[in-house]
Amino acid sequence: MRMVQAIIRPEKLDDVKKALEVKGFVAMSILEITGRGEQKGILLEYRGENVEVDTLPKIMLIIVVDNHDVDTIISIIRTSGRTGHIGDGKIFVLPVEMMARVRTDEEWR
Predict the structure, then answer these.
(1) Which of 12, 19, 51, 60 is geometrically suited to a Cys-Cys bond with 81, CB 3.0 to 4.6 A?
(2) How many CB atoms are closer than 10 A to CB 61?
(3) Where do the structural domains in the chain lie, given as residue ranges?
(4) Cβ atoms within 10 A of the Cβ of 48, count?
């Protein structure tokens, strides 16, 4: 099993969720986070003054899938989450040694 962690723009969340659901991937955790990438934030104008915004709001999706589904998940997130501009996000894939369901004590290794 693998854990896919995807950091995306908040405005792309609905597009990514719908695209994943169409392919049968409905289970995910969604976290509201802040962060910054290589651009180190952005400059905004507020009441005539330049204001540096160091971190920006992002969404993190956490999805645990079978190994053979990882490439499909990554492709879906890339396609549906892309705007073509800096700040579209990152995808990380981590190994999962074990997963357990709290309610039933089921385990997957």
Answers:
(1) 12
(2) 22
(3) 2-37+51-108
(4) 5
Q: Contact at 8 Å (CB) between 91 and 78?
A: yes
Q: For the chain, 109 residues long, give each residue's pLDDT as a single digit of tens.
A: 999 999 999 999 999 999 999 999 999 999 999 988 776 667 777 788 887 777 889 999 999 999 999 999 999 999 999 999 888 999 999 999 999 999 999 999 8
pTM of the predicted protein model: 0.87
CA gap 5, 11 in Å, rounded: 17
Q: Strand 99-100 and strand 107-108: pairing? A: antiparallel
Beta bridge partners of 5: 62, 92
Helices (H), the chain: 13-22, 70-81
Sort strands 42-46 and 49-53 into parallel, antiparallel or unpaired: antiparallel
